[in-house]
Write a structure and sequence with these properties.
Structural class of chain B: mainly beta
Strand order of the largest sheet of chain A: 1-3-4-5-6-9-10-11
Structural class of chain A: mainly beta
Number of strands of chain B: 27
Helix content of chain B: 10-25%
CATH class of the largest domain in chain B: Mainly Beta
Radius of gyration of chain A: 23 Å
Helix content of chain A: under 10%
Strand content of chain A: over 45%
Oligomer: heterodimer
Shape of chain B: globular
CATH architecture of chain A: Beta Barrel
Distance between the termini of chain A: 37 Å
Number of domains of chain B: 2
Largest sheet of chain B: 6 strands, antiparallel
């Protein structure tokens, strides 16, 4: 009996709030957005070990999310939401004296590598933005703020080839690898779970309910855990997210 | 999508021009080459790539000069990693009656390699080998013989090439490398060769097994992964005409034979042989291709090879006595000058050079003698 009352009470509350929201449509805004991420996990500045970026390719990295905006006045508002997104890239670089390790069944071979390094970095994230919005015109909304991103699943792996390894350190035994002899590595377990950073972008309204959006999400902490020392430099996820939004 | 690729290409180009920083000073500190007057150097190959010697904590560099050279005042000139410096001064006169230590400092100033440079007269190769002694170089054993007059002869092996596979398999004891010594000898210690798996990494680079091997010559580590047959460089000067190779062995082949990704029921076989050849500009050494060519190799003068039928699987010591079969006459002047090279070779799997063999095959060898 008690339960039934609670359910009725809950329903009533929900309906009231839906009604209230309808009434205040000017104040609250809801968007569903789908888009793509293009960018990379990059050290900043590039470390001296990297001598040449031979190739870079973005991986297919979609995003889907929902935003809620509270308009404080005619110009200003606050946006938050939730976004499920993939971020990914693969690169091939030529490095010199690059600290790395080859891992097999938990056994590690550390050393300094001179030659090619292929890196694949992908991650599925759940991201929460918190942004200030500024309505610049009827059609354009400018947004800036911070984001917090939780890594659901990630991969950071690759291989080295066409070069030589100095075992342990630059004075260690020298072993040459050609294009067929690859030393693979996988640091996926060493990826940081919680990333945060700055985000800024804009929306452009193309119809009453459709808008284009573009945001730059600039990660401010390393892709890898602090305890991970093999790669001596930090890599920051810097991704450009763009796509289309539907205003509910 | 094409646009995205274009953007990526432009971005890559921009990063390369705008963001690649000035190259850091070199961190390596190697002696790449040592030069002495041509008339005093013998043409014995110098091994610049040895693992660190555990006893002296230095890198050993052995350079052979002709008999009669004045060892008290030699001024070797070293070619170093670009930008590196050496102490004592490069090209300075030193007394090499005993080995001289040189320290190379990298261009960055942060890394050092200390070399013990031993300039010596040609050493007489002993003709009897008891496999009593080994030193630790890197994480593995290097086996040596001390002859009656006190000179040391070092055997070569592929242990250095196994070091990566060892580390990736968590192997830390030198006794678990393919080539080591053991106290189960016919007399005292003996040579112990074991065929080992090289783990995932080894399989990935096309070298799924490592047969224990021991030979006279140099193991040239840098090409061990990319061109393994060129890493084994056979031959040390021998100025006697060898007639027979004798010794004792025990052979226990491993259970399953690994061949090109699968296990078969084939029985593993070991190798016991010796090559005697004439060195030339073209053939300063014989590489891993030569044994298969045998006496057909243009430089080969004689070979001694055990008959596989004589190798019984046994946990008892068995004797071997193999004659050298000659296909050329010996020139005694050349023999006296050390123009003929010899290499006695043992392996726990005779397909080891092609990475075939049974993991677990064990060959023990002791009390070997070259009769002349």
């Amino acid at each position: 009996m008690m339960n039934r009352y609670i359910i009725i009470l809950l329903l009533a509350t929900t309906m009231t709030s839906v009604y209230a929201q309808k009434k205040q449509q000017a104040k609250w805004e809801y968007d569903i957005k789908i888009g793509l991420n293009i960018g990379g996990n990059s050290p900043l500045p590039l470390p001296v070990e990297i001598r040449e970026i031979k190739s870079y390719s973005p991986t297919f990295a979609p995003s889907i999310g929902a935003d809620i905006t509270h308009h404080l006045n005619k110009r200003w508002g606050i946006t938050s939401g939730i976004k499920l997104e993939k971020k990914g890239m693969s690169t091939k670089a030529r490095v010199k004296n690059y600290r790395t390790e080859i891992v097999e069944n938990g056994n590690k071979l550390k050393g300094n590598w001179t030659g090619n390094v292929k890196t694949k970095a992908t991650g599925y994230h759940l991201t929460l933005p918190l942004l200030c919005t500024y309505r610049a015109s009827e059609k354009i909304n400018i947004k800036a703020g911070v984001f917090l991103s939780y890594l659901l699943d990630g991969e950071m792996s690759g291989y080295v080839n066409n070069g030589y390894l100095r075992k342990d350190d630059p004075t260690g035994d020298k072993v040459v690898f050609d294009s067929k002899t690859k030393g693979t590595y996988d640091f996926s377990d060493e990826m940081r779970k919680l990333n945060w950073g700055l985000q800024a972008g804009a929306d452009y309204r193309i119809t009453k309910s459709l808008k284009l959006f573009a945001d730059l999400a600039w990660g401010l902490n390393d892709t890898m855990k602090d305890s991970f020392k093999t790669i001596t430099f930090s890599m920051y996820p810097i991704y450009f997210n763009f796509g289309i939004g539907y205003n509910l | 999508m094409k646009k995205i690729i274009n953007i990526a290409i432009i971005a890559t180009a921009l990063i390369n021009t705008a963001c690649i920083r000035e190259e850091a000073p070199n961190a390596e500190a190697d002696i790449i080459k040592c030069t002495l007057p041509a008339e005093i150097l013998t043409d014995k190959e110098i091994d610049y790539y040895r693992s660190i010697d555990s006893e002296s904590n230095t890198y050993l560099l052995d350079i052979e000069v002709a008999f009669g050279t004045d060892l008290t005042a030699l001024a070797p000139i070293f070619e170093l990693t670009e930008g590196a410096t050496i102490e004592p001064t490069n090209g300075s006169v030193q007394n090499f009656v005993t080995p001289v230590e040189y320290t190379v400092t990298s261009e960055s100033g942060k890394w050092h390699r200390t070399y013990t440079v031993n300039i010596h007269y040609p050493k007489e190769i002993p003709s009897k080998f008891s496999f009593e002694n080994a030193t630790l170089q890197g994480n593995y054993y290097t086996i040596y013989e001390t002859s009656d007059n006190g000179t040391q002869f070092e055997w070569a092996s592929g242990n250095a090439g196994f070091a990566i596979a060892a580390q990736l398999q968590g192997i830390t004891s030198p006794d678990d490398y393919p080539t080591c010594i053991s106290n189960e000898g016919y007399a005292g210690n003996c040579l112990k060769l074991q065929t080992k798996l090289t783990g995932e990494w080894g399989a990935r680079v096309g070298k799924p097994i490592a047969a224990g091997n021991l030979f006279m010559g140099i193991f040239h580590l840098p090409v061990a992964v990319t061109n393994s047959l060129n890493a084994t460089r056979f031959g040390v000067p021998f100025n006697q005409k060898p007639l027979r190779l004798t010794g004792y062995f025990k052979y226990l082949p491993g259970e399953e034979y690994y061949d090109d990704g699968k296990y078969t029921t084939q029985k593993d076989q070991c190798s016991i042989y010796a090559m005697f050849f004439e060195k030339s500009e073209e053939h300063p050494y014989l590489d891993g291709h030569a044994p298969a060519q045998g006496l057909n190799h243009p430089a080969m003068v004689a070979m001694a090879q055990i008959n596989q039928n004589d190798i019984a699987e046994s946990s008892e010591w068995q004797q071997f006595d193999i004659p050298f079969i000659y296909n050329k006459e010996i020139d005694n002047d050349k023999l006296a000058k050390g123009n003929y090279l010899i290499s006695v070779v043992f392996s726990s799997s005779n397909g080891g050079d092609e990475f075939k063999g049974a993991p677990g095959s064990i060959l023990l060898i002791d009390e070997v003698e070259i009769h002349f």
